[in-house]
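re: ur question from earlier - yeah i can do the single chain one, its not a big deal. heres the input i used so u can compare w yours
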Amino acid sequence: MSLFHHNYSYDPGYGLNLSDLLTVPAPEQPLDFCNFWQEKYQRTVDIAADYSLEYQSTRAGYRVYDLHYLSTDDFKIGGWLLEPENQAITQAIVVGHGYGGRDQPDYHLQIAGAALLFPCMRGISRSRNGHLPEQPNQHVLHAIDDRNRYVIGGCVEDIWLAVTVLAAIYPQCAERIGYMGISFGGGLGALAAPWDRRIKRLHLNVPTFGNQPLRLSLPSSGSAAALKAHSQYHPHIFDTLAYYDAAVAARHANQPLHAAVALFDPVVAPPGQFAIYNAWSGEKRLFVLEAGHFEYPRQHEQDRQLVAELQQFFGVLPA
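and the output i got, formated as tokens:
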């Protein structure tokens, strides 16, 4: 029986309870999975920070800056930087967005002493580019025939360079950088973190890209649906997706994790979300959402609880 009344032609709870979801595994990984990502990271981390900042306004206790930086393949990444007005900056956090992009920063997080960088990943929102489609169902397929050029890999590189930019702007925080990401941004964070030890702890909220073979076997209305449809005529895409599996990557992640994963989600199937959490090899905390990508009665209450937990979780970011 579904957890909520809905109009989907499938059950976004997939007939699974919490105990079931906590047993979802990660798939087997390609033999050269770690080498693939380590080499990609090393090429990216060797790039010097190339960025610009422009002060815009003050809002909600933050100084707000427009920020642009150059990522790999000469992609210009746009976003925002929030600096706390009346606090010493003691840490810095990259905040990734969902596949719908973002049109402004999140002002409600209020992490003590934290500068917050909100990059828009290549092709999306403030990083629109004529070479990339912005719509999620097209973006997620871009260059998928080549694992070295696949757009998701480029978005992970955008995250690594966001970390580089924060370390350049705030050298005192170079060893105190965290990451938060939701949905699309959550999956990217899981792919990015294992290879980048500059990221000290993470929050992943309803993360995607977990257990790719499983997620593409399930009905959904998210980017997985576009991948699933494409794979019917191009089954070779699974060769690329094997390298872009956030649950496989999670096996190699040692940083502390705070994960908000959902029991019911029509866009990012919960088994894929839990596969990432289950596989994470570092210390981890679980926050169970009743639903993701779906409005429900206790949503605002759970959102408040979640922000309070994040303020505590990032409040102990290690030096």
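The chain is about 30% helix and 20% strand. not sure if urs matches, ping me
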